[in-house]
Amino acid sequence: MMTSLGPYASFIVTSYAAAALVVAILIGWVVLDHRSQTRRLRELDRSGITRRSGRSATDTPRTITRTIT
Amino acid sequence: MTALAALIRRDIRIALRVGGGALIGVLFFLTVVVLMPFAVGPDLALLSRLGPAILWLGALLASLLTLDRLFMADHEDGSLDLIAMSRTPLELACAAKALAHWLAAGLPLIIATPVLGLLLNLDMVATGAVALTLLAGTPALTFTGMIGAALAVTLHRGGLLMAVLVLPLSIPVLIFGVAASQAAIVGPMSFGAPFSILCALSLVSLVVGPFAAAASLKHGLD
Amino acid sequence: MRLCGSGLTCVRGGREVFTGLDFDAAAGEAIAVVGRNGSGKTSLLRLIAGLLIPAGGTIALAGGDAELTLPEQCHYLGHRDALKPALSVAENLSFWADFLGGERFDAAESLAAVGLDHASDLPAAFLSAGQRRRLSLARLLTVHRPVWLLDEPTTALDVAGQDMFGGLMRDHLARGGLIIAATHAPLGIESRELRIGGTA
Amino acid sequence: MTLIDLANPTRFLALTARVLPWLAAATVALLAIGLYQSAVAPDDYQQGATVKIMFIHVPNAWLSMFVWGVMSIASLGTLVWRHPLADVAAKAAAPIGAAFTFLALLTGSLWGRPMWGTYWEWDARLTSVLILFLMYLGLMALWRAVDDPARAARAAAVLTLVGAINLPIIKFSVDWWNTLHQPASVMRMGGPALDRSFLIPLLVMAIAFTLLFVTLHLAAMRNEILRRRVRSLQMIQASRIAFSSELGAGPREGSASKGAGTA
Predict the structure, then answer these.
(1) Which of C30, C112, C181, D39 could be stapled to C117 by a disulfide with Cβ–Cβ 3.0 to 4.6 Å?
(2) pTM
(3) Where does the ABC transporter domain start and stop, copy by copy (chain C) (predicted)?
């Protein structure tokens, strides 16, 4: 197939490569962002900050908080 | 030296974080350049002839408009008082701030130039020439613009007033920047002569800018 | 160490704020500058800090570091906190420590002393006015300066914060420091009063 | 406090976690089929093999508009129903849309180079996409410029909707401007008269890229929800510090002054 790309093969290959690169960057961004956000959530969790604790003065046990993520 | 490095690091960090304006300058540059063909028409031959001028004007406006808050933000939150009192000479601190601004807001303009050159139908040589002249000339824009930014603090007014004060000062840079790029593209002048004048203008502003800005700031801190 | 001002005159915006002001402060001493609004308390501090130029008179620090000017040996704590909301608490503090230079102490300990030790990674934008003031105080602790110029230092601080701050000022005086504070409220430590601009 | 309602996003997170793997798998499968089909598609009698660029150019050009449509609907959600997920959806879509628009521009100019002999022609379609790209970047800049997401969301929603109304006007003006200057018509990209052998791979690729967008968008929305959660937790943390320091000011002060003395 590669032989049939004609005189402008480099343009075609560049287009596909650029598309692959941009999509890869998008995926990388999404994955890395997810990792850093969950890490920060875990750190906050470890330091005892939970989503309910700010509202009541006493420390509620952290059962309700991060079940998902 | 650590003091200046810390100042540069802090300013770049703020410029790149949420709320910082470094990348908006590039976006402005992009928009101004894209607008030009709508005004002059999409004739590629015409655009490539006007290209260096359009790019230079765009870069000039972009780098001046982002300079507006160079000292204003530090003045408003009281940082400027502490900077003025510190053991680092105010002139050096000003130079460091301008350098940080150039790294965060000026350098991206030069990096964006090849893409915009493509839009304006500039060939490789022409784009390279414009990028090179911008690299040599934008420090002059930043360091003369800094004087206006310092005056804006003294006068408690920024924005357009600053642009009106500084734009005339940047005319020589514009003349020799565009002349050097045109010389590289079409001749007949040699590239070297206007380019060395451009470099000289940058070097002069590197010296004059910080002193003038510091002098203006010293009287503006009340 | 002794900080003396003599015959100080301050003119701002064409108006004479005060004239012929003399003051004198020795190491280990706190001066509370009092006076009604507009009497020039802030102006006096800014004169000492070198941020205003006196229209007359002189200020001299005897017995300080001969290589440094007076402003370079002062900490100035103004109304504005000199903090960047985009930076974290620790970044704000370490910037000032690096930039101001001179003898410095551990930033983490200073943060602990003002009760911000758990906040070091938070963006300064999330801090309340009192917390911002505490962070400014941490700057005074992290970088050593013999003279502290404080402008209404206790505003925005709660009772516990004011107690904490009183302790910090006493430590500073005990180590031979010198404090000049413009204040309406009692400073919370033993201090000599300097009244400017007539009676309140 | 402007905390977003956490009940809904929590359910959304659970849903996302369940759906994302399937979506990703479907995207990969469809992309593979589409790529294979476009590889075996015949050459165009006029354009030769360069017609293959169309198979990624057109889906990206389609997405550049589709994503703006998604953001417009989300913006309506922000402004009219004040739905917390709408802000998140609008914000998460912007960078992805910008990336697809960028790809549409890039592949368009790579396609144009063999046809026109230049990378860039101020052709009406490409120019419109370029303006769209600038608007995406402006929108992203707006999201970045404001620290408080709720405030940024309303501003961005207004801008998105104004953009949606303005885009046809811009397209019309650019068309008019273009014909004014260039009466000789430029080669039209991907005209309506497409052979079936091109149409099917193109459709498959378009659906695959749309699925790719949905997958990325959901994942980005999840990240955005988590980011807001981190932010609100940090605010809670900040509000609790004052509380804890009141209790702990005494002993800490002693330790600090000791430390300062020895340093």
Answers:
(1) C112
(2) 0.83
(3) 1-200
